[in-house]
Design brief:
single chain, about 270 residues, alpha/beta, seven-stranded mixed sheet, disordered C terminus, binds S-adenosylmethionine, methyltransferase activity, Class I SAM-dependent methyltransferase
Amino acid sequence: MERIQLSALAHADHPIAAPVGEGTAQRLLHHAIRRPDAHVLDLGCGEGAWLLRALEANPGVTAVGVDVSDEGFDRTRELAARAGVADRLELRRQDVAAYESPRPADVVLSIGAAYAFGGLAPTLAAARRHLAEDGVLVLGDCFWEREPDPAVRAEMESGPQRYADLPTTVSHVVDDGWTPVHGHVSTLAEWDEYEWSWVGSLNRWALDHPGHPDRDQALRRAAAHRETWLGGYRGVLGFVLLVLRPTPAAPAPAGSGPAAPPPAGPTVSRA
Ligand SMILES: C[S@@+](CC[C@H](N)C(=O)[O-])C[C@H]1O[C@@H](n2cnc3c(N)ncnc32)[C@H](O)[C@@H]1O
């Protein structure tokens, strides 16, 4: 019997792998895509749900998604073909750290994937490397809505990322040289929809496949996830999406630049 891909299954009802509702995603893409022929690059694209939405809404847009896992790629390619956008979508299985763009991107997406670069600061640096001069970054990352229990913090920060509160998170981004032109903080309803979809689709599959060798594993994963969420980070961990443009360099204050050349003396014409 074929083994199942638990992660792809967990996202079956909510292909955006973040606590972000459909309307929110559409609105943020609308703010980010500023030209009809924009090229969009998604660093840690998961199943490419953001790219599919960008392509469907904008007939001139092209898109590349990079992810270390290609678990959902087949389904995405199928959906892209059905929507008539497959010729404008490229999905690459690759570590984002090793990815070199053949062309600068007008829009870079990093949504729930900053850990792929080791945290916020290296993600911002990577986005800057891939972006066209007047490009837009859509960054989605976690923050602490309130001080977590030490055990919750240890669990949610077990990877390379460390989270701060919302004002501090946004300040880090601004101090790094970005200007927010739009933003969204996930609501509790968006979190609940995302987490119940995750837990629910695994449980439903397991109940519908009583003889499958992966059934017990799916039930265990769903139960562990539900307990960590409801007993731990629900209402404590937040998620913010920022639509960002590079902050232009400030003009140097008068008198602070390199010494001006001495004024030219009167030209004396010697006959
Ligand atoms: C929480 S998911 C978000 C997916 C997608 N951005 C979305 O919003 O639907 C994070 C994704 O980052 C990918 N990822 C993690 N480390 C990576 C790496 N080093 N290179 C490429 N992708 C990576 C994971 O495989 C996963 O699909």
